[in-house]
Structures
1.
Amino acid sequence: GIIVEALTDNHSRTAQEIRAIARKFGAHMGAENSILWNWKRIGLLKVSWLTDDEARRDDLFTAALNGGADDLEEAQEDHSINVFTEPHHLHATRLALSTAGFEVDSSELTWRPNGELIHPASDSLIDFQSILEALDNQSDVSAVYHDAQF
């Protein structure tokens, strides 16, 4: 599924434009909030990680948990550690990490799928990537989330 967040002064126009993008690529738009049952709103913090120091990793883990983090995961693509929190713990977790001397590159509220990521078939991969790009290029769209893994 795909979640689209938009900031608009005209809900009907934006919904119509997003619906037209979906139709163009053979998809359909469900009712508002119709797929949220399969997603969770979370806080995400990215912490720079350029060391293999296990003691420092333990310090990061402890600081994150003390701040209210639920989970941590290493992001290989950008040498960072993703720290996941409940939305209401985002600020406290950021503060705990900063106080412990860790550089928080970014923090945001985001959506995370509850289930397994889907792997689009190779023949539909281009259409899926195209719809994501078209949605991202729509002027009122502020964020696009999906449960596909490429």
2.
Amino acid sequence: MEKQSVCAIPEERSGMTLYSSTQAPDFCRAVVAGILGLHGKGSLLAVKCTRAGGGFGPKNSRNVPVAGAAAVAAHKLDQSVKIALEATQEHLTIGHRHSFKVQYKVGYKSDGSIQACKVEAWGNGGCTHDF
């Protein structure tokens, strides 16, 4: 599985280019722009990504802390910074999906085709944002 990774490259006029393993470059850009004080200066921050795979990992919103850390370090050091988490680091720092409890009942006809399906699902979202 693809792990969280980002490369932050300082650009002229205090700009930045991020190459991030994200499925939401617009969200990543908005948050990192706030971290770097670039709100309203959209042309100074670009987030680029290639295909991020099948979405089996936390690539929608949980890449932002890694991208933010690389961007701050690159801004302070005025040089490129790359962060690539190993599996154990990712599980400890990024976390996982919220827990769910699901109950279901399925009714079948004698020929095996599904007649009815009742599903109840509860998600423990807690106080944190997730997709």
